[in-house]
Design a protein that fits this description.
This protein has 331 residues and is of the alpha+beta class. Among the domains are: 2-88; 98-147; 244-314, SH3 Domains (SH3 type barrels). The protein is built from nine helices and eleven strands. The chain has helices at 7-17, 20-29, 34-39, 46-59, 63-73, 75-80, 98-107, 122-148, 150-156, and strands spanning 2-5, 85-88, 166-169, 182-185, 244-246, 250-254, 263-268, 272-278, 284-289, 296-300, 306-308. The strands form four sheets. A five-stranded antiparallel sheet has the order 10-9-8-5-11, with no helix packed on it. The chain has a two-stranded antiparallel sheet with strand order 1-2. Strands 3-4 form a two-stranded antiparallel sheet. Helix 1 crosses helix 4 (46-59), helix 2 (20-29) runs parallel beside helix 4 and helix 7 (98-107) packs across helix 8. The longest helix has 27 residues, at 122-148. The chain is elongated. The two termini are 75 Å apart. Residues 93-120, 160-168, 172-177 and 180-191 have low confidence and may be disordered.
Length: 331
């Protein structure tokens, strides 16, 4: 099953669902789209950022990943412009006939990148089928011309029934003896004289040419087809929701499950997280950035701060490090 994406809808989703600054931050925070951020200038507008992002995702077969991340960050806007792709069924080639094998081999030359996950695009299928039809017509016409040309027939199938002629020359003399007989022939057949004369000759007798063995005329040419393996489509991966997504504009990341611990980072709205641990009351959870494992710490698990997509009771309870000592004021 292949996908044909609607780039116009994806462009509308990105333009109306995010600001220029949010798109820049998205490209910077997502490692797979960091090359897009590196190519942006300070004066690049939102429409140009969207064009760069879609073009890069299309070239690197990342449109499915892009849509999954956009759905997490802005689900309401994502639902508004669906669908973003059409499914195309590409049948497997099972016929082993000469024409089907020719179709399979010629079609492989026209695989285009119009569809993600290495599948054949709609226009690629059209071009391939037209090319196959033209190729079959050209081969058929060439075969008809060759087999109807008498010169070509004589080159391919020479006439094996031609026989040679022998010339017998006898020179009479006045004496009782006769002169030698000179026989000239082209040794491709057998000569049978009607009368056998008595001949006296001082030369060695000429060897009788052996009759040629007729070669049977081939009646047909058999083409042995070579089976071409049909391409096996890759299964389309099913995106899974992340463990947690930050919904607050900003959220402190601390070294332990309390506000008395030091702040080790600041999370932004839309950041995707993996849940790694919790305390017994489930009020604080230990998380790690989905795209940058180096970002790790504790956050509050309240629904006004973060959306949690896993059952916290299945997450292991962790014992945090003791909080840092409170500094004693100097008198």
């Amino acid at each position: 099953m292949a996908r044909r994406y609607h780039l116009k809808k994806i462009r509308t989703l990105l333009i109306e669902g995010f600001t220029a600054e949010e798109l820049r931050r998205f490209c910077y925070d997502t490692p797979i789209f960091r090359p897009v951020y590196d190519e942006l200038a300070q004066s690049t507008g939102k429409a140009e950022i969207v064009d760069h992002l879609i073009e890069y995702a299309d070239q690197k077969f990342l449109l499915e990943k892009l849509l999954a991340l956009v759905k997490v960050r802005n689900p309401a806007r994502y639902e508004k412009y669906q669908p973003y792709y059409d499914s195309i069924i590409v049948p497997d080639v099972q016929d082993n006939s000469d024409e089907a094998i020719l179709t399979s081999n010629v079609g492989g030359l026209f695989d285009n990148r119009g569809i993600q996950i290495g599948e054949i695009s709609f226009w690629g299928c059209v071009i391939r089928n037209v090319s196959i039809a033209v190729g079959v017509l050209l081969v058929s016409g060439l075969a008809i011309i060759l087999f109807n040309d008498p010169n070509i027939k004589r080159l391919i199938f020479p006439n094996p029934t031609a026989t040679s002629t022998a010339t017998l020359t006898i020179t009479p003399t006045a004496s009782a003896t006769r002169t030698p007989v000179v026989i000239s022939s082209t040794p491709t057949g057998t000569f049978q004289p009607t009368q056998e004369p008595t001949i006296t000759s001082t030369r060695e007798p000429t060897k009788t040419p052996q009759p040629s063995i007729d070669t049977p005329i081939p009646t047909s040419i058999t083409v042995i087809p070579t089976d071409a393996p049909s391409p096996t489509p890759n299964p389309t991966p099913t995106p899974t929701p992340p463990d947690a997504v930050v919904i607050a504009p900003e959220l402190n990341l601390r070294a332990g499950p309390s506000i008395i611990y030091d702040r080790v980072g600041l999370l932004q709205q839309g950041d995707v997280l993996d849940v790694q641990g919790r305390i017994a009351s489930n009020e604080w959870i230990q998380v790690q950035s989905y795209f940058n494992p180096a970002i790790q710490g504790w956050i509050v698990s309240g629904p006004e701060y973060v959306t949690i997509n896993v059952d916290l009771n299945t997450i292991p309870i962790l014992t945090p490090l003791p909080p840092p000592p409170t500094p004693t004021p100097t008198p």
